[in-house]
Amino acid sequence: MDLNAGDQFDSDYLELNPKAIVPTLIDNGQPIIESNIILEYLEDAYPSPPLRPEAPVDRTKMRRLLQRLDNGSSGVFIT
Predict the structure, then answer these.
(1) Does residue 44 sit in the same domain as residue 60?
(2) Which of 3, 39, 55, 79 has the highest CB neighbour number within 10 Å of its CB?
(3) Average pLDDT in the 46-59 region?
(4) Does the N-terminal peptide bond of residue 56 adopt cis geometry, omega within 30 degrees of 0?
(5) What does the pLDDT look like over 5-52, one tens digit per residue?
(6) Helix, strand, or coil here: 78?
(7) In whole angstroms, what is the distance from residue 31 CA to residue 57 CA?
């Protein structure tokens, strides 16, 4: 997709993802949108190899980073 050209607003893409956001994952014919939701889906649907860290403390770091991304935060991420 060429986001600068506005490919995300193409009618075919909007049928998959009405929000016109990227990325969209198609698995078994089903569109899954939103980056963090896609990551959770992949972990649930295809658990091996795991995407999440094994240690609970490392998972909290991962969740903080994902939360910052969801909120549109940028800048330095302190672990």
Answers:
(1) no
(2) 39
(3) 93
(4) no
(5) 999 999 999 999 999 988 999 999 999 998 889 999 999 999 999 988
(6) coil
(7) 31
What is the CB neighbour count within 10 angstroms for residue 46?
Answer: 11
Neighbouring CB atoms inside 10 A of 32's CB total: 19
Per-residue b or e along 5-24, where b marks 16 or more CB atoms closer than 10 Å to that residue's CB: eeebeeeebeeebeebeeeb
The helix, strand and coil proportions of the chain, stated in percent and rounded to the nearest 5, come to: 50, 10, 40
Question: For the chain, how many residues are written?
Answer: 79
Show the tokens assigned to 44. 């649930």
Higher-pLDDT residue of 71 and 42 is 42
